[in-house]
Design a protein that fits this description.
By secondary structure, the protein is mainly β. It has 3 domains: 66 residues, SH3 type barrels, CATH 2.30.30.30; 55 residues, OB fold (Dihydrolipoamide Acetyltransferase, E2P); 56 residues, Beta Barrel (OB fold (Dihydrolipoamide Acetyltransferase, E2P)). It is built from no helices and 17 strands. GO terms for molecular function: translation elongation factor activity.
């Protein structure tokens, strides 16, 4: 899952958009999947949802949810399944976390030595992430951490929570993020969590 908007992360500063971006191919809207980048009304958008909205003049109408990758604003439009849409090219590259600099993390592409800065509290030294680009004008669009990562528990609250028949406690990992851990997890121990949901998976 690529991260685009979550309260844990600071918003990226995107370059100003010009009228040119990498067009990939044209196709009917029916064949486009959620997560792809498209051009609509001369601007790039990310398709984040689609819902059947009845028929219009004998053809099925689809309610489409779009997100502007520059401003983060969402918009809704209606399209027919056979409407032709321009698909924009998304590029994925691997980066490795090098070090922290103030509130950001500096990462490097180990093949090209390109460096970028991201704000993400879950990044750990040496971690490899996948960065997604919308080229050439917008640059970094989103990024994806490994699905499961290990973090050190700094503190555990004494306030118990009941979940799935087990007693869970709020705990804070070394990055400062709060998660829920079983009652047998102690400060100083390491745990594996799901980076998409922040759910506890196991103790190391």
């Amino acid at each position: 899952m690529f991260l685009q908007a979550r309260s844990l992360f600071s918003r990226l500063d995107f370059p100003r958009l010009s009228s040119k971006f990498a067009r990939f191919y044209k196709t009917e809207f029916n064949s486009i999947k959620v997560g792809q980048a498209i051009e609509y009304d001369g601007k790039p958008y990310i398709l984040i949802g689609r819902h059947h909205g009845g028929t219009g003049r004998g053809q099925a109408v689809i309610k489409v949810d779009l997100k502007d990758p520059v401003s983060g604003k969402k918009t809704n439009i209606r399209l027919k399944g056979n409407d032709t849409i321009e698909v924009l090219q998304l590029t994925q590259r691997k980066f490795q976390f090098l070090y922290k600099e103030k509130d950001s993390a500096v990462l490097m592409n180990m093949s090209t030595f390109e460096e970028i800065s991201l704000s993400d509290s879950l990044l750990e030294e040496g971690m490899e992430i996948t960065v997604q680009y919308l080229e050439p004008d917008i640059g970094v669009l989103s990024w994806r951490l490994p699905q499961r990562c290990v973090y050190k528990v700094e503190s555990v609250s004494q306030k118990a929570l009941k979940a799935k028949g087990t007693t869970f406690y709020p705990a804070r990992i070394e990055s400062g993020i709060e998660i829920q851990v079983p009652d047998y997890v102690k400060p100083g121990e390491k745990v594996t969590i799901d980076t998409d949901t922040l759910e506890y998976i196991s103790r190391q």
